[in-house]
Write a structure and sequence with these properties.
The chain is 47% helix and 21% strand. The protein is elongated and about 45 Å long. The chain is of the alpha+beta class and 70 residues long. It is built from 2 helices and 2 strands; from the N terminus they run H-E-E-H. It has helices at residues 2-7, 42-68, and strands at residues 11-17, 28-35.
């Protein structure tokens, strides 16, 4: 998030990946974009992204459970 804020990119978000040995290198299970344009400090960005991260993890767990039972 810090890098996105410094680069002043208008979009960030949350991604949940399949687990691999390397961080954030597995296939993406869930990706949720979020507009952060106009936010200027990290606290504000974190407050906006945190609920999106929690929802993405829950969605990824539901998807994994569904795939296991299919």
């Amino acid at each position: 998030l810090h890098d996105a804020l410094v680069a002043r990119v208008p979009w960030s978000g949350a991604s949940v990946h399949r687990v691999t040995r390397e961080t954030d290198r597995g296939a993406i299970v869930v990706r949720t974009p979020l507009c952060i344009a106009g936010l200027t400090n990290l606290v504000d960005v974190v407050e906006k992204v945190r609920p999106i991260e929690h929802a993405a993890v829950a969605s990824a767990i539901r998807r994994w459970c569904f795939e296991q039972n299919s």
